[in-house]
Amino acid sequence: MARTYLVTGALGCIGAWVTKTLVDRGDEVWVADVDTDHRRLDAVIEPDNLARVTYEDVDITSGDGIRRAIDRADARHVIHLAGLQVPACKADPAAGSMVNVVGTVNVLQAAADSDCERVVYASSAAVYGSADGDAPDEKWPGTPETHYGVFKQANEGNARVIHADRGLDSVGIRPLTVYGVGRDQGLTSDPTRAMKAAVVGRPFAIGFSGTTDYQYVADTAAAFVACADRASPGAHVYNLHGASVEMADVVALIRELRPSAEIDFGGPTIPIPPALDGSSIRAAFQDLPSTSLADGIRQTIERFQALHDQGRLDTHDLD
Questions:
Q1: Is the entire prediction scored with pTM above 0.90?
Q2: HEC letters along the chain
Q3: pLDDT band at 133, cuts 50/70/90?
Q4: Residue 1 has pLDDT above 70, yes or no
Q5: How would residue 36 be classed by pLDDT, with cut points 50, 70 and 90?
Q6: Homologous superfamily (CATH) for 4-176+216-241+273-291
């Protein structure tokens, strides 16, 4: 039986793949976003399915706007992905807090005011900062070292309080380095941009080094949808874990598929532990997909190549 979902930030990378996951299985999807750039949706969703998506122009910093969108959609499930990434929050912390914190509170409050069953929202591994320990679990205390991480930590706390006060069930999901078609913004987008550069024959310099936890975007989207559908009552937070890999090995996997790729890397390591303990979400949802890094990179490059062959590959992020 088809369900109705409201997805905020659906024009971003994870949002596009969440929307794809839902429409591909026949659900009704309403997209609430202030952006009008559909290129990520266009890159991952077939045109016939895109035609079944309903768009709402919503600024989540307006509580009334998101409340009207939930009511118009009659959505019982909200997947909240709208937000500003690390560089934008660093450049303008006040704007970052308005979108990432006030916007999330507005979504949670609006859902609590409606007949919504559950909100699943994007938190982040940035809540940890550069904490000691190779693979912290959800009980590990966070000491975020970016405004972005502080904002995400605040969202988790607000979700707990709103559950206690209003009874709204919620799930916060903490990805780390998500990669795949559509990932072209944020601190950890460089590996995906390097894959795109390899397809179009451009040199690319990845701006960070070291080991980090890579999660394929289709797997990440599946986790959000599973939590929206089947999470138990409460205000939960889950880490995601994919493959903890050193940057040199990632570059080697790209070069296996594109031997002529000119890819360099360097710079600081990410101030987040290099791997997350993702056992809690795997215990709660035992059927989640787990794409190997090699397969995920191959699928990403193949899709970039297909879009390039069709004249549809957007390369603005490489310019």
A1: yes
A2: CCCEEEEECCCCHHHHHHHHHHHHCCCEEEEEECCCCCHHHHHHCCHHHHCCEEEEECCCCCHHHHHHHHHHHCCCEEEECCCCCHHHHHHCHHHHHHHHHHHHHHHHHHHHHCCCCEEEEECCHHHCCCCCCCCCCCCCCCCCCCHHHHHHHHHHHHHHHHHHHHCCEEEEEECCEEECCCCCCCHHHHHHHHHHHHHHCCCEEECCECEEEEEEHHHHHHHHHHHHHHCCCCEEEEECCCEEEEHHHHHHHHHHHCCCCCEEECCCECCCCCCCCCHHHHHHCCCCCCCCHHHHHHHHHHHHHHHHHCCCCCCHHHC
A3: low
A4: no
A5: confident
A6: NAD(P)-binding Rossmann-like Domain (3.40.50.720)
